What does this fold into?
Amino acid sequence: MNDADKFALVPRPPGALEKAEPGARGVLADMVQDALTLARAKTHAEGIPALPSYTSADLETWYQKGISHYSGKGAPRDYSEAAKWLRKAAERGHAKAQYGLSLCYDHGRGVPQDYTEAVQWCRKAAEQGYATAEYNLGLNYEDGHGVPKDYAEALKWTLKAAEKGEPLAQNSLAELYFYGKGASPDYAEAARWYRRAAEQGYADAQSKLALCYHDGLGLTEDKAEAVKWCRKAAEQEHAVAQFNLGTSYFAGEGVPQDRAEAVKWWRKGADQGQTMAQYQMGSCYEFGWGVPQNYAEAVKWHLKAAEQGDARAQYSLGSCYEFGHGVRQDYGEAVKWYRKAAEQGNAWAQCNLGYCYEEGNGVALDYAEAVMWYRKAAEQGYARAQNNLGSCYAKGNGVSQDYVEAVKWYRKAANQGHESAQKNLGACYANGRAAIEDPVDAYQWVKFAEEQGYEGAAKKAAAIKLLLSPAEFREAQRRYNRLRSSKVSDAPAKIG
It folds into this structure.
């Protein structure tokens, strides 16, 4: 006997006949019999056919007819016929037919689209223990599809299906635990369910299990094990796994570093439209990582990712237009792409857009607008923007001239090793525009300015030295030597 043949016996309360006194029971029985006789006579007189009897084999036959018409396999595709036969079996308790009828309502195939009705039929099948229906009912609760969103209910039904070995449900359950939906976040429990689905060959779960190993989420961090599971998913054409496997090869995590192999896997993901892989392909061609440098190819891949809304690719595409790399130089087009990325909060793009406003490249010159965009990037800790914002305060461009603010922003950038900011801060100390609150700190910056040839820096350094004890002077010299060996270029960084 299969699951479709099993029917639960539902207890009912005692009827009138059972509760009647012995003397009245015979009278009631006669009344019931008379009512049945009258009903049969009425049915016969009005030509209403009696309900036919059916077997479990009949239910399965009707279900199969419905599926054949739904799929177009074994019968012409006809959603109305499919819904008719699925309903016939569903109304008589066939769990798979109930689920099939729920799909008809969900997609509006053969019946008017009705998400609430879809959920009702899905629930009927789920309550009979049909794993696919349990999983989908869980999804409905998770997404608020046909029912109010309820993560606790989603977890309950997804768990039922997962325990029956349904890999999609196991992966979905892991996601609920991973993101704390319906329960507190539990990476260990998430990893356990990802593994159960991954061991059945489910690529999504293999990819997420790799992430758990890579980041040590619910499992001991193990980059080699991460690569193993990532590769299993990547070989099933899982685009995110292909991107991550490429990243492992690029960084040499869990495998020997191999940029050519990184490009191979990134290309596979990029060809499937994976945005991050497309961006990385653009960067590889832009900088010659694992492939010969080719700006035209860089533009091609950056454009693909940029059109999907990737802010880093939009920034990179703007940079290509600004400098004429792989395309004709076009400041207006550069500003367009910088703005798209900047409005998503990309600090590099915010800084470059600010520079376009400061110089009038592709837009009307507007110092106040430049300051606004520099500030957005500077407050995210981007050293180049901090230096540029400091310069705006020093010059009074777009803001009131304020050397205290200038020194503040120069210092933030200088402490990150930004070379121009270090020169600017040193100059402020050398020309007396920065108050000497910490002689040890001031000495390193003035010495740096002296090395750059700033007028008056040597005299200022000598004066500050007089304020230092021997121990403080040694500390100032140590800081200065460290400063000289840790400089950051004025050019914006790239994510590899």
Summary: The radius of gyration is 36 Å. The longest helix spans residues 22-45. Residues 1-13, 488-496 have pLDDT under 50 and may be disordered. Residues 28 and 277 are 79 Å apart (CA to CA).
